């Protein structure tokens, strides 16, 4: 049975017997990261908690759509205000991506990039915040950045007419957009309208081999493509060598995601796992509950791992919503497998980066089983906290888990099969699959590894990140790229290095 108290972590336990009215006492909320739960009461009390849980999930789903907790400026979806009147003369960038204040990896990286550029004092951003539903469609701005960072909530990623309106109003210097190329077919249809006035920079975040050559018309519709991984960079350079390409991976703030002192970690574990009798091997999974992320397989295979080492030797902490319309019902999987004694815990609430860093510190390993992962931000954050990772040999994940010299910072899972999924518009999306036995063996390898060796893996992983994924270094690359784009291509009255489409009469 499930027990939930006013907190953030959900624990699954068996029902109390009538002879033994065991009580689970709610632990006070943790001072930094995830809050703890236990539960109190008999079976009937727990049943009542279960009945009331539906509203908890509803409230959580509302926050996932958008909670609207920002300072607002006036305006609505039907009458877009002219925010250009608020702006001074700086490099103005119109961005299209996931909402920059949403918890998605794309949204998080968009926010990191924007905030880093704003700190230079050289930029202003008008950002279309898409990919989620919103409770409030009024134009938003943050208290910290005011008129230099304006967010326009949109469904999807926008429309052609909205882009036309914003270009006319804002006259941005650059159009910058990020995520899967299939989401921008509508945008590339009007590329000549855009590029005759302003350069287009696409941040290509997801693809896998073999080369998807049907993407070439998309690639050549841009002035510049920035690529998120060496795999993606290789794809673009081979498919469309005529396009200017820059390799700029995601970065992580090494001042936020870091190793905590051991005493602090121990105190945090005591708060989060108050009933834990001795330290248990902790496996952390941080992702959205979506099909391609394979959260159900993570639970299923973790249970098989427990069958080897013992049910009381390890726990799985999942920072996700157990019930998401895009993924499986994780509660049902847990109940079916009989994991009702705290073997699996959920942290479903949105938390800040400092709190998330505490969770990475509390874990012994962070795992990913994604079929198709362009980069994998959570595993990067884990390595920054010196926690080793287990990841498939796909996308940008394979570049995180080892360096160019072949030195590993966790375990890389071999690809056992490939699947092709897609649509009429995008016929080839390659998904890499890993095997259960390989995953279990990877867990066993780190479980049986002496703690000092695991810690050394984590230390080397952080050194790898300091060299290759330090947010400060990568943001300097973005700053240089934006500056060079403005000098090389100009915009509006100064637009250059773009050949407009022309109609010629043929005799």
Query: Uncertain runs with pLDDT below 50, 5 residues or more?
Result: 1-7, 14-87
- What spatial order of strands do you see in the largest sheet? 1-2-13-12-11-14-15-16
Number of DSSP E strands: 18
Shape: globular
CATH topology of the largest domain: Rossmann fold
Largest sheet: 8 strands, mixed
Could you tell me how far the N terminus lies from the C terminus, measured between alpha carbons in angstroms?
A: 81 Å
Q: Which CATH architecture of the largest domain is right?
A: 3-Layer(aba) Sandwich
Number of helical stretches of at least 4 residues: 16
Structural class: alpha/beta
DSSP helix fraction: 25-40%
**What is the CATH homology-level superfamily of the largest domain?**
Glycogen Phosphorylase B
The amount of beta strand, in percent, is: 15-25%
The number of domains: 2
| The CATH class of the largest domain | Alpha Beta
Radius of gyration: 24 Å
Average predicted confidence as pLDDT = 80
At a glance:
This protein has 507 residues and is of the alpha/beta class.
How does this model look, in words?
By secondary structure, this protein is α/β, with parallel strands linked by helices. The chain has 2 domains: 83-251 and 471-494, Rossmann fold (3-Layer(aba) Sandwich); 265-467, Glycogen Phosphorylase B (Rossmann fold), CATH 3.40.50.2000. It has 16 helices and 18 strands. It has helices at 43-65, 105-118, 160-170, 185-188, 191-195, 216-219, 230-239, 262-272, 295-309, 330-337, 353-362, 377-384, 397-400, 436-448, 451-468, 471-489, and strands at residues 2-3, 10-12, 91-98, 123-130, 140-141, 149-153, 174-178, 200-204, 224-227, 244-247, 281-286, 314-319, 344-346, 365-367, 389-392, 410-413, 417-421, 429-433. Strands 1-2-13-12-11-14-15-16 form an 8-stranded mixed beta sheet, with helices on both faces. α2 crosses α16 (471-489), α9 runs parallel beside α10 (330-337) and α9 (295-309) packs across α14. The longest helix is centred in the first third of the chain and has 23 residues, at 43-65. The chain is globular and about 80 Å long.
């Amino acid at each position: 049975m499930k027990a939930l108290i006013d907190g953030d972590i959900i624990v699954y336990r068996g029902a109390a017997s009538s002879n033994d009215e065991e009580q689970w006492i709610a632990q006070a909320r943790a001072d930094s990261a995830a809050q703890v739960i236990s539960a109190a009461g008999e079976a009937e009390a727990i049943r009542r908690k279960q009945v009331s849980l539906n509203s908890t999930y509803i409230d959580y789903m509302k926050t996932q759509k958008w909670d609207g907790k920002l300072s607002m400026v006036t305006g609505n979806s039907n009458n877009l205000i002219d925010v250009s009147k608020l702006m001074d003369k700086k490099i103005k960038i119109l961005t299209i991506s996931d909402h920059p204040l949403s918890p998605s990896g794309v949204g998080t990286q968009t926010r990191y990039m924007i905030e880093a550029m704003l700190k230079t004092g050289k930029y202003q951003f008008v950002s279309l915040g898409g990919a989620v539903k919103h409770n409030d469609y009024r134009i938003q701005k943050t208290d910290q950045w005011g008129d230099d960072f304006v967010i326009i909530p949109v469904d999807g990623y926008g429309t052609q007419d909205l882009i036309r309106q914003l270009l006319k109003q804002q006259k941005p210097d650059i159009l910058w957009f990020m995520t899967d190329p299939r989401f921008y077919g509508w945008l590339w249809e009007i590329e000549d309208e855009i590029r005759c006035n302003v350069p287009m920079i696409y941040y290509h975040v997801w693809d896998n081999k073999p080369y998807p050559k049907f993407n070439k018309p998309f690639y050549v519709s841009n002035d510049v493509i920035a690529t998120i991984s060496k795999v993606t960079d290789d794809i673009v350079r081979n498919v469309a060598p005529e396009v200017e390409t820059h390799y700029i991976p995601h970065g992580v703030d090494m001042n936020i995601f870091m190793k905590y002192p051991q005493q602090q970690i121990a105190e945090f574990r005591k708060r989060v796992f108050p009933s834990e009798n001795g330290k248990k091997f902790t496996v952390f999974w941080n992702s959205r509950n979506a099909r391609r992320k394979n959260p159900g397989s993570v639970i299923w295979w973790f249970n098989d791992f427990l069958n080897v080492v013992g049910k009381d030797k390890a726990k799985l902490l999942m920072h996700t919503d157990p019930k998401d319309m895009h993924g499986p019902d994780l509660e049902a999987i847990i109940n079916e497998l009989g994991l009702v004694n705290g073997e699996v815990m959920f942290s479903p609430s949105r938390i800040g980066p400092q709190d998330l860093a505490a969770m990475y510190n509390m874990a012994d390993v962070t795992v990913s089983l994604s079929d198709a992962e362009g980069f994998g931000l959570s595993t990067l954050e884990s390595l920054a906290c010196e926690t080793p990772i287990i990841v498939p040999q796909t996308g940008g994940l394979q570049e995180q888990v080892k360096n160019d010299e072949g030195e590993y910072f966790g375990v890389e899972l071999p690809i056992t099969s490939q699947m092709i999924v897609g649509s009429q518009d995008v016929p080839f999306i390659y998904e890499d699959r890993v095997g259960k036995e390989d995953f279990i063996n990877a867990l066993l390898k780190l479980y049986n590894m002496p703690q000092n060796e695991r810690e050394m893996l984590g230390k080397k992983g952080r050194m790898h990140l300091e060299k290759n994924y330090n947010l400060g270094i990568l943001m300097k690359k973005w700053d240089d790229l934006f500056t060079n784009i403005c000098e090389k291509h100009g915009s509006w009255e100064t637009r250059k290095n773009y050949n407009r489409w022309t109609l010629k009469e043929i005799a």
